[in-house]
Structures are given as structure tokens and as C-alpha cells.
Specification:
Elements: E1 2-4, E2 20-22, E3 31-33, E4 41-43, E5 51-54, E6 56-57, E7 70-73, E8 81-83, E9 91-93, E10 101-104, E11 106-107, E12 120-123, E13 135-136, E14 146-151, E15 158-163, E16 172-175, E17 186-187, E18 190-193, E19 203-204, E20 215-220, E21 228-235, E22 242-250, E23 260-265, E24 273-280, E25 287-295, E26 306-309, E27 317-322, E28 329-334, E29 344-350, E30 352-359, E31 362-366, E32 382-388, E33 396-400, E34 403-404, E35 413-415, E36 424-428, E37 438-440, E38 447-449, H1 452-472
Length: 473
Amino acid sequence: AVYYYSCSVCGAVESNDEHTFTDGDPIAHDYTAAVVKDEALKSEATCTSAAVYYYSCSVCGAVESNDEHTFTDGDPIAHDYTAATVKDAALKSEATCTSAAVYYYSCSVCGAVESNDEHTFTNGGKLGHSFTNYVSNNNATCLEDGTKTAKCDRCTVTDTVADEGSALGHDLIDHAAKEATCTAIGWNAYQTCSRCDYTTYEEIPAKGHTPGDPVKENEVEATCTEDGSYDVVVYCSVCGEELSRVPNTIPAGHTAGEPVKENETAPDCTVPGSYDAVVYCTVCGDEISRNAVEIPALGHDWSEWQTVTAPTVAEPGLARRICFRCSEIETQEIPRLDAPKDRKVQFVVSGSMHYVVHMDDLDYEIYSRTTPAILWYKERALTFSVVLHDDWTGGCIVSLNGEELKPNYDGTYTVPAGTDYAKINCYPAATTAAVSESETCPYCGQVHPSSIWGRIVAFFHMIFWFFTRLFRK
């Protein structure tokens, strides 16, 4: 018990909770209060039992720790089926050839087994089939192994595998050889199998006939007028069988001799000749053919043409020739001569001469070294004029064969047909000596001074005119 202190003089009691004292011993607890509190919890609730609590003192609330004096509160909790525990009690189905063993889950708290077919687990592997007693299927062939089958020792599944070494091999039968003939096949000795289609048979083709040389039979000779005949026969040289027979006709016919000429007529210059080419049979003499053959006319053998009358400008001429074989005479007209045409030759004088000849609308240029010369068309009359260079002082003298030509009324000059134009010359009227004292171009006749400079100029002048003539050609 706890007491307040009293005054030692007057006996008054002090009410100070901090100043007390005890007296006597404590009385025993009264553990009869079933109070649910954490400090009184002996064991929590499980899947098999409710929570267990110790009793508390009904006076002070102290908890009694007496395992024999407890009380429960509430209900047991649900099982926790999450433990994959392999044990006989949890076995759903044992392992088979094709599947592993199946177990139910157990409670992780109490180990109770859950009987839920939808909530299981497997453990271990499949056992696999056990094939121990194989029996032959009796299906081996001569060349290939057969098979054998066994039933699983644990289930009804069967397994078929090759029965190695069970091939039977061939059951051979011998056959004799046969030789081929002309028309029938043969074969070599061979073997067959009584169980399969195995064979070593090789066919030898029929040899076929061997044709001999053709022979003639039933021959009848032909004559000039009647046909003959014969058969061409071929036999097999091995078996003698007739292979072919071809009838042949020998045509009747004459034997032609060489052609002979009959009724021959000779040809002349204008009329053809002819003869009969006749062929006779050399056996019977009959005429086989007669063909008329023409001999071509010989044609005239003419002499050369001879002029009878010469042509003129006004009248044509006449020519004739004679055949040496028949003396026939043939004549032909000689055309008239063309009338003369005016042709003009222009002389350009400048120390030497430069000519331009106009003929049939074409220009021809001629050059001479010292004196002008025209070298063609001498058969007809020629009319020409002389033109002086602008730098020429003095006159010009035109001469033919050394004689001076007189000009026509228009200042031109005319020379008759047959004139040698090389004889036409033109000289300066002032002097003729300057030509010999100078260098003269051999192509155009131009005269250059005989000085060194003049010779140089003359040299290049000649080269220029040489190439000018060359390219104009």
C-alpha cells in the first residue's frame, strides 16, 4: 500500500504524489480479464486455428504468461496453397511415357494438400517409351532390308524400324543363250530371280539379211523394134532368201550411126545454103532421123572505099567499093565540106607577143619564146587582129613567110586555108634588135632587160607562166 507522509508535530497529511511511501506486500493479480491486445497475443491466427491470447489482470491489466491459461479470438485464416511440395499425399498422377508426374499444390503454412485439378504442377521428365521386344514384319526383299515392330512395355504405342541385314538376296535361275538369225532376235546366257524382276537378259537384235550382188534373171534381148526385159534379183548371202526382184525393160531402138550429108546446096554472098543431116541404124540400116541444116550466107567480101567524086562546100562527094566474091558494087555519099568560119587571133605586143585564139567559143592561149606562132587548125582561113599594150610605143608589123601582111578595112588580118600559122609573125615597128639584147620568157615571149635584176625577174616570170600552163591543162 502507498501512503502520503504526515506531519510529525500535528499529524497533518501531505498530499504530494511525489512524496509517498509503501507499507506491506502487494496482493496477487487477478488474471481473469480476456483482453485482446497486442501484448497479450500468444500466437496469431493460422489456417487451422484462431489467434491465441494470454489473460490479463482484471485490476492492473498485467498480462499472464501461462501457456495453460489462454483464450482464442476470431476464426482460422484460409490455406496458402502456393507450396510446390513433392510428396506422395500431393501426387495427382504418376509419370508416363509421354508426360511427367503431376502434383497438387500444398499449403505453405500447414502443408495441407489442395485437391484442385486446375491448380497443379509437374515434376521430373517423361519416362519415354520402352521398346524391348521387336518382331520381324517379314517384308524384306532381295535387295532391301525389311522392318521389325515392337510394342511399348508401358503403353500401347508401337515402333517400327529397319531390320538391318534382313535383305534376302536374289534367288537366281540360269537361262541358256540363243543366237540371233537374219530375221529372229537372240540373247546371251542370262539369269533371273524367282522373287523379283531382276534379270541380266540382253537382247541381240536380228542380224538382218546380208544382200548379195544383184543377178539378172529371165533376160530377153531387145531388137531394133521390140523391147527386151530382165529381172534384177537380190538374194541374202546368209540364208538365201530372195530380198528383192525388180523388172527392167530394155527399150527397143536402133543403133545410130554417124550423121551423113545429103542434098547439099552451097551458100553465096546473100543466099544461104542447106543440107540434110541423115542418121541411119548401123544394125538394120533404117533411116533414124533427117534434119534440114541451113548454111548461113557468106556475106560480101568488100574492098576498101574508093573516092569517085571529092566533096566540096557546095556538093557532096561519092565513094564506092566492090565485092571480091560476086563483084557487087556498093556506093555511099561523102558529106559536103563545112563552110569556112572566122577565127580571130589577138596579138598583144609588149616587147614580145601574147596570143589569144578564139575558136568555136573556146579560148586557147599560145606562147612563143621569140616570135609568135599559132600551131593548129590550118585547114581553114583565119582572121585575126593585133592589139598593142598600153605601154607600147610605136607600131607593129605583121608578116607571113617574111612578107608584110596588109590589114583589112577593119584593121584585121586574114590568111587563107592551108597557111602554116607558125610563119605568122608580129614585130615591133620601132625596132627588132631589142629582143636579142634581153631575156625572153620561153612560154609567153615577154622580153626582160638583160641586166642581173632583169634576169631575176625573168626567172620568176618563167616559173609563174610554167605553172599557169600546167594547171590550165
